[in-house]
Amino acid sequence: MAASAFAGEAHDATEMNRMVFEKAEASIESVMAINSTMALQGLAFFKTMSLGRQPDFSSRHGEALAAAAVKPYAKRVRSNERRLNGGKA
User: Fold this and answer.
1) What tens digit of pLDDT does each residue of 46-85 get?
2) 31 vs 47: CA distance, rounded Å
3) If we measure between CA atoms, which residue out of 74, 87, 88, 80 comes closest to residue 20?
4) Which residue, among 30, 6, 74, has the nearest Cα to 82 in the 3D structure?
């Protein structure tokens, strides 16, 4: 990226801008996914508690949050790979 920034070709600048904006969009989607996952987990917790049951404190909840956080970035990476490899991924 640094070498192409000095070359100054229009295509390179367009691609760099696209990558930056894609990462910004992915970060927003990631935060929204984490928030919705946490809200669903909280509702399930309170439902379980209100029914007088023991809530599940397993690590699955953390894994679900991590998966929700990473999913938007993984989607962008696969898309970038296909685009930059000419559709061969």
Assistant:
1) 999 999 998 887 778 888 899 999 999 999 888 888 888 8
2) 24
3) 80
4) 74
Q: Is 17 exposed, middle or buried (CB count within 10 Å of its CB: 0-12, 13-18, 19+)?
A: exposed
Which amino acid is it at 43?
A: L
Residues 19, 84: Cα–Cα separation, whole Å: 11
Nearest residue to 60 (alpha-carbon basis) of 49, 76, 44: 44
Check: pTM over 0.85? Answer yes or no: no
Integer Cα distance of 63 and 73 in angstroms: 16
3-state secondary structure 43-63: HHHHHHHHCCCCCCCCCHHHH
| 82 neighbors 89 (Cβ within 8 angstroms) | yes
